[in-house]
């Protein structure tokens, strides 16, 4: 049996299984210093400042945040980090699906308590980057992608549910 996922240092991995460096810096709401490179704003700060900013930014969304409030600024947002403060809190799945259904095509990154067992469902909801706690993040993505081949419900991905396949709908 492998060690618990939570004992590993989180690594950033894409939905294609590529381990990538994290070039983003999270700014707290009080930080007024300039930052070299891309930065992620907290949700409240993003709502206050995105209208007056030029360029592309990231936004950290917590479970209680209404992601629909970001839609007027979506063209300025390159990355949306969806926080999972605990593996039992699944509100982030809805956040990702809402973003994809509203046409957001940028990166949606799962951060926080992200475990191997969640990756399959996160992929279906529209996440494409994961800060995952696993000894083999690329292997975890590959396993998640092949976990099931038939689905009972539609999702943000392109997989059709079983009833649609049977009835050619």
List the helices and strands and how they pair.
Elements lengths: L10 E4 L10 E3 L11 E4 H7 L7 E5 L15 E8 L6 H11 L5 E6 L6 H7 L3 E4 L4 H9 L16 H6 L2
Helix pairs in contact: 3-4
List descriptors.
alpha/beta; Rossmann fold; 169 residues; single chain
Outline the structure in words.
The protein is an alpha/beta fold and 169 residues long. Helix 3 (119-125) crosses helix 4. It is built from 5 helices and 7 strands; from the N terminus they run βββαββαβαβαα. Residues 1-5 have low confidence and may be disordered. The chain has a 7-stranded mixed β-sheet with strand order 1-7-6-5-4-3-2. The chain has a single domain (5-167), classed as Rossmann fold, CATH 3.40.50. The relative contact order is 0.17. The chain starts with 10 loop residues before the first strand and ends with a helix. The chain has helices spanning 43-49, 91-101, 119-125, 137-145, 162-167, and strands at 11-14, 25-27, 39-42, 57-61, 77-84, 107-112, 129-132.
Kindly summarize this structure in a few lines.
The chain is an alpha/beta fold. It is built from five helices and seven strands; from the N terminus they run βββαββαβαβαα.
Q: Radius of gyration, rounded?
A: 17 Å
Domains, number: 1
User: What gap, in angstroms, lies between the N and C termini?
Assistant: 43 Å
Which outline best applies?
globular
| Average pLDDT over all residues | 85
Q: Low-confidence segments, ≥5 residues, pLDDT <50?
A: 1-5
Strand content: 15-25%
Helix/strand/pairing category: alpha/beta
Quickly name the level 1 CATH class: Alpha Beta
What share of residues is helical? 10-25%
Number of helices, where a helix is a run of at least 4 consecutive DSSP H or I residues: 5
Main β-sheet, in a few words? 7 strands, mixed
Name the strands of the widest sheet in spatial order. Answer: 1-7-6-5-4-3-2
């Amino acid at each position: 049996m492998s060690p618990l996922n939570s004992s590993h240092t989180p690594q950033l991995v894409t939905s294609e299984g590529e381990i990538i460096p994290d070039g983003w810096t999270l700014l707290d709401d009080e930080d007024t210093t300039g930052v070299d490179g891309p930065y992620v704003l907290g949700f409240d700060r993003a709502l206050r400042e995105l209208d007056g900013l030029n360029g592309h930014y990231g936004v950290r969304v917590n479970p209680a945040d209404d992601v629909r409030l970001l839609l007027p600024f979506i063209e300025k947002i390159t990355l949306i980090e969806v926080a999972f403060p605990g593996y039992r809190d699944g509100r982030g799945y809805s956040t990702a699906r809402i973003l994809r259904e509203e046409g957001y095509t940028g990166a949606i990154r799962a951060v926080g308590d992200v475990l191997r067992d969640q990756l399959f469902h996160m992929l279906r909801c529209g996440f494409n980057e994961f800060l995952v706690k696993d000894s083999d993040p690329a292997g975890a993505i590959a396993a998640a992608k092949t976990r099931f081949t038939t689905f009972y419900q539609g999702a943000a991905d392109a997989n059709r549910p079983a009833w649609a396949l049977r009835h050619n709908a």
